[in-house]
Design a protein that fits this description.
This protein has eleven helices and eight strands. It has about 425 residues and is α+β, with helices and mostly antiparallel strands. The strands form three sheets. A four-stranded antiparallel beta sheet has the order 3-4-7-8. Strands 1-2 form a two-stranded antiparallel sheet. The protein has a two-stranded antiparallel ribbon with strand order 5-6. It comes from Trichonephila inaurata madagascariensis.
């Protein structure tokens, strides 16, 4: 196969030929495919969250922010890196864009990782404290956390790289896009961008796993022990009975709301701070029906919250898979990043190739998150199907309309007084 030839105009206005071998052409096709998949998948996630009402949840604020960061990686960071790789590390776009591109790379990658960290904390609160979660994680608070994530990412990227360029005394060739090898910056940015969030995610998902196991056991034995949030000396034991009868939920205003569902009866027994039932609670009269339980129980709709535990655990499982893929994708890069800062290129054989492979492996994490949602999240799978089917339906309708219009337009009738000039 003959090399592919391109005429490229570089920043110094000199025209030169670039010959791409078959391997370089194949590499370009693969890398462009990665970019397209990443952008398409994350745009699909954002459209699904915006259009589908059932995806308007607090957790999906963080997922939308994650998709935005991943889309930025696929649309801006990966394409220029693909050109850089295909051109054998020859930079075509000048020093200014190199600095901005490197900053956007750090910004988007760090924001993606910190959003995953925020999601893990959100799931930790939802699983371990399902009664207080709605009051703790409100939409304004979720938006504030997302803003902090992007602010921290921006502070790590733009000012740090600008400072490094200002204090750098090494000559900077125009046809290369170098990154800092400052030990302090590489170690600090790695801790803030990866190792710190990784520690938080491992801790939260371990606690989520323990809480999920405990709650599953509680539901199986039909009893759950909770503590009142504003009465530290009081707690309550919930006894849960399930059946298959017709459920009748009575309200205080003597109205009734019937529905055919699994029968769920919740009774609450007050206990003291030592965990024992109060002396008066031994009698059957003190086993409080749910509608006569304390105001704290009614305020949080215990039956509804307990019914959501299964859904919360499934969401935690999906996001746990996201975290596992994140570790596999990013851990090699940040190990290499720290090693390059500490011992330089001497301790890594073929460091340029290894660094490029692990960098792209980290970026591929941005394209894998939508695939994980589609495979493990029923809500996102349903939303993706609806969006893609509606797009196909719209295109078919447009095609049929155009075909009908063409077939229904009659030939223009000639007027009797019209003269034809040849």
């Amino acid at each position: 196969m003959q090399p592919t030839e391109f005429i490229v105009l570089n920043s110094t206005k000199d025209v030169f030929d670039i010959h791409l071998t078959a391997n370089q052409t194949a590499l370009a096709v693969v890398l462009v495919l990665f970019c397209v998949i990443t952008v398409f998948g994350n745009v699909l996630v954002m459209v699904a969250i915006v259009k589908q009402q059932y995806l308007h949840t607090v957790t999906n604020y963080f997922i939308a922010s994650l998709a935005t960061a991943d889309c930025l990686v696929g649309a801006v960071v990966m394409p220029f890196s693909a050109i850089h790789e295909v051109m054998d590390k020859y930079w075509l776009f000048g020093r200014e864009w190199c600095d901005l591109w490197r900053s956007l790379d750090v910004l988007a990658s760090t924001a993606s990782i910190l959003n995953l960290c925020a999601i893990s904390v959100d799931r930790y609160w939802a699983i371990t404290n399902p009664m207080t979660y709605p009051s703790r994680m409100t939409p304004p608070r979720a938006k504030a956390i997302v803003a902090v994530v992007w602010l921290c990412s921006a502070l790590i990227s733009f000012p740090a790289i600008a400072w490094w360029r200002a204090v750098s005394v090494q000559p900077y060739p125009e046809n290369q896009c170098l990154f800092t090898n400052d030990v302090g910056y590489l170690v600090f940015s790695s801790v803030i961008s990866f190792y710190g969030p990784l520690a938080v995610m491992v801790f939260t998902y371990y606690k989520i796993y323990r809480a999920a196991v405990t709650q599953t056991k509680s539901l199986k034995i039909g009893m759950k022990h909770i503590r009142a949030t504003n009465e530290p000396c009081r707690s309550m034991t919930l006894r849960i009975h399930r059946g298959g009868a017709h459920e009748q939920v009575k309200h205080d205003d003597n109205q009734s709301n019937a529905r055919h569902n699994r029968h769920l009866v919740i009774s609450a027994t007050p206990t003291t701070s030592t965990g024992e039932s109060s002396s008066s609670s031994k009698s059957p009269e003190n086993t409080i029906p749910m509608r006569f339980a304390s105001r704290h129980v009614k305020a949080f709709s215990l039956s509804k919250k307990l019914g959501k535990l299964t859904k919360e655990r499934k969401a935690a499982k999906t996001l746990g898979i996201v975290m596992g893929v994140f570790i596999l994708c990013w851990l090699p890069f940040f190990i290499i990043n720290v090693l390059l800062g500490i011992c330089g290129t001497s301790c890594i054989a073929e460091h340029e190739i290894v660094s490029s492979i692990f960098t792209w492996l980290g970026w591929l994490n941005s394209g894998m998150n939508p695939v994980i949602y589609a495979c493990w999240s029923r809500d996102f799978r349903r939303a993706f199907r609806q969006i893609l089917c509606s797009c196909c339906k719209i295109r078919k309708q447009q095609y049929r309309f155009q075909t009908t219009m063409r077939s229904n337009i009659p030939a223009r009738a000639k007027s009797p007084n019209e003269e034809v000039f040849l």
